[in-house]
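Schema walkthrough. Field components (list of strings):
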Amino acid sequence: MSRFERKILFAIGLTVFLSLGGSIFFAQGALREVYRVGVNERFGRELVHGVEARRGQLMALREASEQVADAIGWAVEAAVKENSSPRALEAMLAELLERYSSVRAVRVMEGDRVYVSASRKSQPNSDPSRATTRTREVSARGQELRVEVDVAVPEIYFQRFQEAGEVADVYSRLQRESASVSDVYVWVFGVLVFLVIVVAFLIGAIASRRVTRRVMALAEASRRVGAGDLSVNLPTSATDEVTELTQAFNDMVRDLRDSRARIEYLQRIGAWQDFARRLAHEIKNPLTPIQLAAQEMDETYAGDDETYREKLEHARAIIEEEVATLRRLVGEFSGFAKLPQADLSPADLCELIQSIQDSIPAILEDIGTEGPAPVEVRVSCATKPMPVRMDPMMLRRGVDNVLRNAIQAVYRAKPTGGGQVLLRAYSVERSAFIEVSDNGPGIPRENWDRIFDPYYTTKVEGTGLGLAIVKKVVLEHGGEVGVDDAPEGGARFRIRLPLMASS
Amino acid sequence: MKYWLAACVWLIASSASAQSNLPLRDVQVRWARGAPKVSFSAKDLADERVRNELQSALRKRLVVTVTAHPSGSGRTIVRRQFGCDVTHDLWEDGYLVRIANQTERLPSLEKALDRCLVVRGLFVGEPQRYESYKGKEIYFSVEAEFNPISEKQCRELIRPTGNDDPVGPITVSIVRRRICQAEKTVRFRAKNIRVPE
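Field assembly_structure (string):
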């Protein structure tokens, strides 16, 4: 993990920890207060009162059942004292059953024998009840009787009492454990917040790693550039500030690469210029003595041998022709060697194109073998001005070379007509373009990189200096030149020049 | 990894130490057909507060757990538990004692305590559980609890609100453990005895 990555992770961790840790600190008081509000002494007291009330209810029911048993016992005693018949006693018991709803049955026992009894008809779907028998001893007119009263109360009263007791029990435990239970809430909250911190940290780490990885790649690329590797090109897929930085870095490396290529090319051209200068000098000097010697040999021959004279004249013609060719070559080499540095000043590119357009008839005349070459040359230029820092004479020479090559190419391919050359100038964003395209045979793709090298030519009588001069001129203008296939089918040369900032 | 191992070893050791450091008490052990029958009294669980609560007419629970362990270890060979629900009957005098599905009426609290906390001849595990300990020393430990709320009842009484929040169930399960534990507990152990060959 890099230092940068560690710093970012530390910042994320600190931010997450401070925010969520702070929330635990402030939330714990609130949580404890919430718990105190929910589990308080008054609720507990009321629950206990509820349990006591239910107990009181049960005690009252028991008391009532005892009183009912007393009342029935006394009634039986009074009836026996009045010497009531068993039938009358039975009727009285039935009446008592009607009066006391909690009584299920009454039996008047004489020893183990049922003297008289009455019972309520059982209800088929009645709620469960808890029954018991209350017994009363009755003694009257010498009879020892025992009154057994079956009483019952709904079981639900007992159940509710137990349920209330359970709730009160749990509540009292909650009260007793109040402090520790509220601590549990705080702890659980804290643990969950900690988990959130961990998850947030991991997400932050993953997210930051994407950024740091790109920054690290940028740093690594910078090191490679520093070591001289200008082939670096970083991917720029995202849309953020790091991408902008990466794009700027890529642009910078591309500019460096172009500058280096430009410098290398210009250095190479410089070397070739030096070579051309010496070659021109070495070849030019013996040409005149050779030509003079040939002339003298031809003119001073005094013999009568006609055959020999003819041979001498033929040799002199060959020598003079070859010397002329060598003079032309020397002239071109000399011109290339003396090619000056471009002296740049602001000018409108369209004006230059216009001046070239004016010279097109002369070029056609020059190239054509029997009158002007039958090639249609069209020229177009943008309507708005295209200010460019240029050396008009040199740039014109460069464009003239390209145009001349195009006309020659289509003329060779279509000597009887049909050849077309288009010269146009336009601007895109901060660049001005001069484009020369034709419908000639084109240039094979494998030669695109080599045609700008000095002395590389595919023409029979070419010197291979024309396009080298073009490239030198363009590079000295801060631009670049390239070739590709033209839509018309031939070759297309495109010169890019930087537009001046004011445009 | 080694820290986890160390923690596990420490936990096991401390558990064993906690079991074997319980106070010693007289626990009668008789062996019948290869299984031990233990007798003891845990009636001292019922102090004055416990007795008052048992007289409240609310149902209270007494739970006795007997466990057998190899000598010097906290590992459990076998565990036997039984519980009594004791209710002072308000409708009729006496105490209703419910063990498993059987309810009996006892006339006094003393009788109810005898029924629940004085254990006589309780089988602790099947004979085959002691097969591998024949000739070796083991000991029994007893835990008597007053009014622990059963897990089922506790779950019914303290439940999360049913919302989707994650805090509720976690918190409730922790609170349950604290709230539903016994109100009073008595623990003791017996002397080491040798399992008959």
